[in-house]
């Protein structure tokens, strides 16, 4: 019976490590997308044209970078998604104004 428990424990540990690795890659992928969107917003003059979206995107991106260095990458991915969404909203507002 103890061999069976040992095997189950080993599978559980490997599975948890695999999931944490997936969160890391997901968070870094979201981070790159957020940085790209923020760069586009910055280049389009978002700081003066849409300051709320610009500041939101910037701060969410900063928090995502901080969270990426902490254990558990899920919050980093979420903040990166919020940053990307704010950047895209800002870009949409800029397009409406043109």
Radius of gyration: 19 Å
Summarize the biggest pleated sheet.
none
Query: What is the approximate shape?
Result: rod-shaped
Computed structural class: mainly alpha
Residue fraction in strands: under 5%
* Uncertain stretches of 5 or more adjacent residues: none
Q: How many helices does DSSP assign? A: 4
The ordered string of helix (H) and strand (E) elements is HHHH
Give me the count of strands: 0
How is this fold's topology laid out?
Layout: H1 2-43, H2 46-49, H3 51-68, H4 74-97
Keywords:
98 residues, 4 helices, mainly alpha, 90% helix, 0% strand
Walk me through what this model shows.
- The chain has 98 residues and is an all-alpha fold.
- It has one domain.
- Helices cover 90% and strands 0% of the residues.
- The protein has helices spanning 2-43, 46-49, 51-68, 74-97.
- Helix 1 packs antiparallel against helix 3.
- The longest helix is centred in the first third of the chain and has 42 residues, at 2-43.
Question: What is shown here, in short?
Answer:
The protein is mainly alpha-helical.
């Amino acid at each position: 019976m103890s061999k069976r428990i040992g095997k189950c424990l080993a599978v559980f540990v490997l599975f948890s490590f695999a999931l944490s690795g997936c969160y890391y890659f997901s968070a870094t992928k979201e981070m790159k997308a957020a940085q790209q969107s923020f760069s586009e917003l910055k280049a389009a003059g978002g700081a003066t044209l849409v300051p709320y979206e610009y500041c939101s995107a910037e701060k969410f991106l900063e928090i995502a970078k901080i969270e990426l260095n902490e254990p558990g990458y899920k919050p980093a991915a979420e903040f990166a998604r919020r940053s990307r969404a704010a950047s895209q909203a800002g870009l949409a507002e800029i397009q409406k104004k043109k």
